[in-house]
Design brief:
With 261 residues, the chain is α/β, with parallel strands linked by helices. The chain is built from 8 helices and 7 strands. A 7-stranded parallel β-sheet has the order 3-2-1-4-5-6-7, sandwiched between helices. Strand 4, helix 4 and strand 5 form a beta-alpha-beta unit. Helix 3 packs parallel to helix 4.
Length: 261
């Protein structure tokens, strides 16, 4: 029920952090993984390092999420060359930090394009194959800001919430075809992006990144940051046959930080 042999998966933003860990998790379960990101050299390196316990031949797809049409073309080409994609992991780097009152209209439009529009085009590229196979898993890596906005991430909070409701709407439409759509909401995860956010917050407040980090950890019942592999493990479950009746949920993976919300 956790086996993904004979399944093909597109994992977006898969050269580092949660995306890379998710690609490795799916590959370890037997899926053939198509890595999708903009850095060709990094993609090649990660692709060569993915596990292949079932003899999979993984592939890299180069496209920039600032150009959603190019992302859709890359995914459609992968379907045309190799057949249906059964698992789609939408994972795109968050918009820059900053207060919402200072955000420009362009910042919202760019973020909406890179997240909602790109996700929509990717789904349209793979949906027919999922329906034909009677099996599909669409998993969106978002944020706990869907439940509670995070200070200093005005545009991100807005766009992540839009992705969440787009996904839950889609979940109801595709469920009769054996396709599920779920949102994973990572809490504070030890990644490069989080480190940069800590650094910016420290600079703005006149403290150190280490102090910011400790303040954040003090709000997490588990008493530590998440590891990318822990988020990926949840992605792996949601991608599997075992999760066939889990659909349309926002699933926090945050060490209990939002348990009371």
């Amino acid at each position: 029920m956790l086996d993904l042999r004979d399944r093909r998966a597109i994992v977006c933003g898969s050269t580092k952090g949660i995306g890379r860990a998710s690609a490795a998790e799916l590959a370890q379960r037997g899926a053939t993984v198509l890595l999708l990101a903009r850095d060709a050299a990094a993609l090649k390196q990660v692709c060569s390092e993915l596990p292949a316990p079932a003899g999979q031949v993984h592939e890299s797809l180069v496209a920039d999420f600032a150009q959603p049409a190019a992302v859709a073309t890359a995914a459609a080409g992968a379907v045309e060359r190799g057949g249906p994609v059964h698992v789609l992991v939408n994972n795109t780097g968050g918009p820059p930090s900053g207060p919402i009152a200072a955000a420009t209209p362009e910042a919202f439009l760019q973020a909406f394009s890179a997240h909602v529009i790109a996700n929509q085009l990717l789904v349209q590229a793979v949906l027919a194959g999922m329906k034909d196979a009677g099996f599909g898993r669409i998993i969106n890596i978002i944020s706990t800001s869907v439940l509670t906005p995070i200070r200093g991430l005005g545009v991100s909070n807005t766009i992540r919430a839009a992705v969440a409701n787009w996904a839950r709407t889609l979940a109801g439409e595709v469920a009769p075809h054996g396709i599920t759509v779920n949102n994973v909401l990572p809490g504070y995860t030890d990644t490069d992006r989080l480190a940069s956010l800590f650094a910016r917050r420290a600079e703005a407040s006149g403290t150190s990144a280490a102090e910011i980090r400790e303040d954040i950890i003090s709000t997490i019942p588990a008493g530590r940051l998440a590891r990318a592999e822990e988020i990926a493990a949840v992605v792996g479950f949601l991608a599997s046959p075992a999760a066939s009746y889990v659909n349309g949920v926002n699933l926090p993976v945050d060490g209990g930080r939002t348990a009371g919300q």
